[in-house]
């Protein structure tokens, strides 16, 4: 009886002594049996008979084995890497329209792709214009048939953002367009502007942009009385509002 009791106590002592302690970066503590430490992972078992569990090393601060030896694994992930992860933009796509342009004869559809860091957005617009807006109001278009114009280009938005609040941020960047604008009596030209704006809305859902662009326009051909010298450069500005969905 005494012999059996001694053997049982020895086995229990071995089991308890074999438990290693894992100190995690979020402040929690795990216990188990350390198997190995590779370049990127720590492998352990919760019990001697359970399956192996893999932990990323960046989540493990250190391991204390059952003999009291300390294995330093990594730095405090919660203070460094967690901030980096939180700053990553997860919803990088925006598709939107410019509704106010419909009143002056332009229908604009916009797609924007934001980089993972959230500080640069590449914008591709498609503009369909018609001569029922600006041209009909300010120019004599009697006798002219209805026309449709097409233009496109690219914007580069450099966002000044706060990683803790991605709902509101300022941006600045170039705005380039080339095509034919039927709302200005079939004027073909190229515009280059610097735009300053404000983006606001949810990080997933409705997104809105308001901006003002200042630059010039190079006219190649025009039926408008506004551009008598077709090859000249003209000062050009724009006020833009678009609303859409971010995902």
Question: Could you list some keywords that capture this structure?
Answer:
14 strands, rod-shaped, 11% helix, 247 residues, 3 helices, eight-stranded antiparallel beta barrel, six-stranded antiparallel beta sheet, single chain, mainly beta
User: What's the count of strands?
Assistant: 14
Radius of gyration: 32 Å
- Name the helix and strand elements from N-terminus to C-terminus, one letter apiece: HEEEEEEHEEEHEEEEE
Mean pLDDT over the residues = 81
As a percent range, the share of helical residues equals 10-25%
Largest sheet: 8 strands, antiparallel, barrel
Number of helices: 3
Helix vs. strand class: mainly beta
- Shape descriptor reads rod-shaped
The percentage of residues in β strands lies in over 45%
The parts where pLDDT drops under 50 for at least 5 residues are 13-17, 76-80, 137-141
- Which strand order spans the largest sheet, edge to edge or round the barrel? 7-8-9-10-11-12-13-14
Q: End-to-end distance, in Å?
A: 70 Å
Can you characterise this structure?
- There is one protein chain.
- This protein has 247 residues and is mainly beta.
- Helix content is 11%, strand content 55%.
- The strands form two sheets. Strands 7-8-9-10-11-12-13-14 form an eight-stranded antiparallel beta barrel.
- Strand 7 and strand 8 (106-114) form a beta hairpin.
- The chain is rod-shaped.
């Amino acid at each position: 009886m005494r012999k059996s009791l001694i053997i049982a106590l020895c086995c229990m002592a071995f089991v308890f002594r074999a438990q290693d302690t894992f100190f995690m970066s979020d402040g929690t503590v795990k216990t188990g049996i350390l198997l190995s430490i590779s370049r990127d992972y720590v492998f352990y078992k919760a019990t001697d008979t359970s399956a192996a569990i893999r932990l990323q090393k960046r989540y493990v601060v250190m391991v204390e084995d059952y003999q009291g030896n300390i294995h330093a694994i990594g730095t405090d992930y919660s203070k460094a890497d967690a901030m980096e992860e939180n700053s990553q933009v997860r919803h990088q796509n925006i598709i939107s329209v410019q509704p106010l342009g419909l009143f002056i004869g332009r229908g604009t559809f916009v797609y924007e792709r934001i980089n993972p860091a959230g500080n640069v957005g590449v914008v591709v617009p498609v503009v369909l214009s018609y001569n029922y807006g600006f041209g009909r109001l300010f120019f004599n278009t009697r006798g002219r048939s209805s026309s449709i114009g097409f233009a496109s280009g690219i914007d580069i938005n450099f966002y000044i953002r706060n990683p803790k609040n991605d709902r509101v941020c300022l941006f600045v960047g170039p705005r380039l367009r080339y095509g034919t604008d039927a709302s200005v009596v079939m004027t073909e030209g190229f515009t280059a502007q610097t735009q300053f704006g404000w983006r606001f809305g949810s990080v997933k859902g409705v997104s809105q942009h308001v901006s003002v662009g200042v630059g010039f326009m190079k006219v190649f051909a025009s039926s408008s009385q506004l551009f008598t010298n077709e090859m000249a450069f003209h000062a050009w500005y724009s006020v833009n509002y678009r609303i859409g969905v971010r995902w």
